[in-house]
User: Fold this.
Amino acid sequence: MNLPRRAKLLTTLGALFLATIPAGATADPPAAGQRVRVAAISFVPRKLDLPGNADRLEQAFRQATAGGAKIAVAPEGALDGYVVNQMLAGEIPVARMHDVALPVDHAVIQRFQTLAKALELCLVFGFAEKVSADVFNTAVFIDGAGAIRGKYRKMQFAEGYHPGWWFNRLGAQSRAFDTPFGRCGILICNDRWNPALARIPALDGAQFLVIPSFGSKSESQDEAVLSRARENGLPVIEANVGVSLIVSEGNVAVVQREPESIAFADIVIPAPLASKPAERDEEERKFLAWRAGEMQRRYESKYHRFGRTGGQPGEAK
Assistant:
């Protein structure tokens, strides 16, 4: 990116202020213009190291609290190490997903509920969610009282999709949910490239978006996140592996490119807007219709590159 273009991207990097409402509060949605101190955590989780990643994630959330954050977002796959790509490439047996996939009521998730309450911190992170015999790429939002306010399953994959991928299922729905700081919507990584996946929670009344990611660190990804914020008039907190990006009032508040770091900024949460369920459902219907063909196209393209002509990569359950 040339200097004038980069300067435009960074126009509002500036003063950061502490939020005054505790993260565990149950107050009404904030009025327009309320500033909330937030953190985007960048760290590189180790593949299949659930205990080690959980310990590192806890320390990162503690550091976010020490920096004054009331909401902290960590990357996609923060607990499992985001191992899907290695499984699809045949580098890790897919059966190893059983070692790291967790139901949402697992003791490891409860550990972070306890931590959130102790820190009075709203926290978001990605993990491999076990649901019966299937596994989803999921992110969870835990409030400062330790309650799970919402979760989201990734709806768009860069790698495409095969119906035999029990270890990498697609999500089917996106909804905003209430938090102590207003309604929130979640996207995960590749979702950020698709305007529809930000528009759906916005039509459901979202007042801010969070994006746990484990992917591109390019400036074009920054521009995609900035575009999703501007299209919907919402602040965005993205925590990626090697880049953190926070957008508020249509401008970049901070962008930081370090593999192990925490970026802090204020976001200004807009006044709540009424949800538009009919428009939301229509947007989601159109997305799902488009996705069916697009995921097949991406799958075929990817596995032709691997020298495969079809079928399911990986192993049986």
Observations:
- Helices lie at 3-9, 50-66, 84-88, 97-100, 107-119, 195-203, 219-232, 277-305.
- Confidence is low (pLDDT under 50) at residues 1-31.
- The two ends are 45 Å apart (CA to CA).
- Residues 31-305 form a domain with the Nitrilase/N-carbamoyl-D-aminoacid amidohydrolase fold (CATH 3.60.110.10).
